[in-house]
Amino acid sequence: MSKPMCEAQCSSSQQERHLARISRKSKLARLALPFLFVGLATVASAAPVSFTFTATGSGTLGASSFTDALATVTANGDTTTISNFGAALIIVPTEFNISIAGLGTADFTGTGFFGGHGYVYALPGSSIVGFGTDSDRGGASGAALAGFDLTSVVGPVPNATMTFSGDATSLGSLTFAMGTAGTFSASTASSPEPASLFLLMSGVLGMYVAGNVRRRKHGSM
Asked: Which element (helix H / strand E) includes 185?
């Protein structure tokens, strides 16, 4: 076998192996792309949501008593966890606490009716929103809440109410008798997509594009 023919065959064999490697990488990229897009869509649609109920009243928190103090119930969660319960929409907060002016903030620690330590609910058709622990503890209603589905910004809505009787918290048992109604507000914020997901997606897209370009280039020779 002459030397030029050997070099030609070796070169051809190397090109075939190179193209095979590119093809494998491109196939892997094509297989990975749908999963990356699904993951990106899931992350992009997730939105933190925060609900705030206020009222003024008197009662006890553990061994401490309070009179005509502002109470603020805060429930933080994510819109992807909203579920249906009859005509109501329910979200179980990941953070659920009450702040009493002069006493500090206490996390609810009892067992919630829907799991966790409590819940926030909305009745979009009845313009009602509320919250509870093992049962309903307060809420608000009004025209501003028409169609409210726990995912949008609203408030402050007036005439929010609340009452507690022996609810378990991190600062002790809570009792609360409302003196003056307060407000309800809801706020949301879109979750930023993780930078690592974009970097991975960019890398896979780059492999896919480069593979196509190289195959076309070698195919045209």
From this structure: strand 174-188
Average pLDDT along the chain:
80
**Residue 187, C-beta contacts closer than 8 angstroms, at least 6 positions apart:** 49, 50, 153
User: 35: burial class by Cβ within 10 Å (0-12, 13-18, 19+)?
Assistant: exposed
Per the listing, tokens 């809505």 go with 157
Q: CA 109, CA 111: separation in Å to the nearest integer?
A: 7
Cβ atoms within 10 Å, residue 78 = 16
Q: Residue 168: is it exposed, middle or buried by C-beta count within 10 angstroms (0-12/13-18/19+)? A: middle
C-alpha to C-alpha distances, 139 to 5, 55, 83, 131, 175, nearest whole angstrom? 87, 10, 18, 6, 17
Can you tell me the distance from the alpha carbon of 58 to that of 143, in angstroms, rounded to the nearest whole number?
29
- Dist CA 120 CA 140 (whole Å): 11
26 or 96: whose pLDDT is higher? 96
